[in-house]
Amino acid sequence: MDQASASRAREALSIAHEISTILDTGLDKETLSILINLLEAGVNPEALAAVVRELRREAAALKAAAQKQQRQVAAATSSARS
């Protein structure tokens, strides 16, 4: 990729990230870049969106489970001190 093409690609990514931020998608620039590359490689956009949604659900479930475990440990520690 020549310097001009690289510059245009960076500018396009910056614009896409600005739009993503305005739409409050929660996608950082690196993630957005990966998704754009996957789309350019021919990945089905609807399938990719479904994967992103599922990954977000899984991440939220893992976070909730970790928080629950932390509360249980804190409660057990508090009970043991009493």
Brief account:
With 82 residues, the protein is an all-alpha fold.
Task: Note the main attributes of this structure.
mainly alpha, 3 helices, 0% strand
Q: What percent strand? A: under 5%
As residue ranges, the low-confidence spans are none
The rough form would be described as elongated
Count structural domains: 2
**DSSP, total strands:** 0
Structure, explained:
With 82 residues, the protein is mostly helical. It folds into 2 domains: 1-43, no CATH class; 45-82. The chain contains 3 helices and no strands. It has helices spanning 3-22, 29-40, 45-81. The longest helix has 37 residues, at 45-81. The N and C termini lie far apart (66 Å). The mean pLDDT is 92.
Topology:
Layout: H1 3-22, H2 29-40, H3 45-81
